[in-house]
Automatic annotation (TrEMBL):
Residues 127-288 form the Yip1 domain. It is a multi-pass membrane protein. The keyword Membrane applies. It holds the Pfam family Yip1. The lineage of its organism: Bacteria, Bacillati, Actinomycetota, Actinomycetes, Kitasatosporales. This is YIP1 family protein. Its main location: membrane. It is found in: Membrane. Residues 107-117 have a biased composition (Pro residues). Keywords: Membrane, Transmembrane, Transmembrane helix.
Length: 295
């Protein structure tokens, strides 16, 4: 009996230690864990999806993403995007906008700029015939009074011999009376070129052009003189009423129309229909005054 009371006869292994229960009113310390455990949502409360987490992130502030979750899941910035879209047009906020392409809507092209300094008179005269587009673009802001006045005056001196009646009168007249007659005719061509060039410039500005008047008037005088030179050369020997001279005259008049249109288009930044309309009065005046050698 004594041995039974002293514990003899039972299992001699030491008793296992039971965890001590915390006193009432105190929270027990959590057991140690080697790794952090994921916090499970409370029972009876549905877990929020990624979209709801993104909205909560934008509404409640910065919230750290769960460990191991990629950032491209969900919409973490959904709330901020909605707030930015709502306040985009309010005062104090800016919003991105697009610039319309004038070429896509058929508007006028942007204004070109001169590509270099003023051309000397030789490259200028040859460029009007061989490279008209580049020449007009380069000279759109440069006055060409010297070449324009000299070339037009020389053209006027010979233009009188391209008309049959005027040539007979100049040949049959005395030298003292023929020289003033020829000089007055040359000055008349210079004055007429100035007036017609000014009319072309005025019409181009009314149609929306932005070019300067000095290059427009000077280049128009050069175009008028250069394009009629082939007809004048043949008219000096064959007469103005010759059939070949008439054909050459029509061809050079059409070439003058093309050069006038191109020059106004480059100098005033206008599309070719408006450029042609601006130079139409000058073309009609040249046709009616010169009459292709039949005056």
């Amino acid at each position: 009996m004594a041995g039974f009371r002293n514990g003899r006869g039972r299992d001699n292994r030491p008793p296992q230690q039971q965890p001590q229960q915390a006193p009432y009113g105190y929270n027990a310390a959590p057991p140690p864990h080697p790794q952090q455990q994921w916090q499970q949502p409370p029972q009876g409360r549905p877990q929020q999806g990624y979209g709801q987490q993104g909205q909560a992130y934008g509404q409640q502030g910065h919230q750290q993403q769960p460990y191991g979750e990629p950032e491209y899941f969900g919409e973490p910035y959904g709330g901020q995007h909605q707030q930015h879209a709502a306040a985009a047009n309010n005062p104090g906020h800016t919003q991105m906008f697009s610039v319309d392409d004038p070429y896509a809507q058929g508007g006028p092209p942007p204004a070109p700029v001169p590509t270099g300094p003023r051309l000397p008179w030789k490259p200028l005269l040859s460029g009007i015939v061989l490279r008209p587009a580049d020449t007009f673009l380069r000279m759109r802001d440069h006055a060409v009074w010297g070449p324009a006045l000299i070339v037009t005056f020389l053209y006027g001196l010979l233009a009188i011999f391209g008309f049959d009646k005027a040539r007979d009168e100049a040949i049959n007249a005395t030298l003292s009376s023929a020289i003033p007659y020829v000089l007055m005719t040359a000055l008349g061509f210079v004055l007429g070129g100035l007036i017609l060039g000014a009319v072309t410039h005025t019409l181009a500005r009314q149609l929306g052009g932005d070019g300067a008047w000095q290059p427009t008037v000077g280049l128009s005088m050069l175009i008028m003189s250069i394009t009629d030179t082939p007809r004048l050369v043949f008219a000096l020997f064959l007469g103005g009423e010759n059939g070949l001279v008439q054909v050459i005259g029509w061809a050079t008049w059409l070439a003058a129309g093309a050069l006038f249109t191109l020059m106004v288009s480059r100098s005033h930044d206008l599309p070719w229909p408006k450029a042609l309309g601006a130079s139409a009065i000058q073309l009609v005046a040249l046709l009616s005054l010169i009459k292709l050698g039949t005056l």
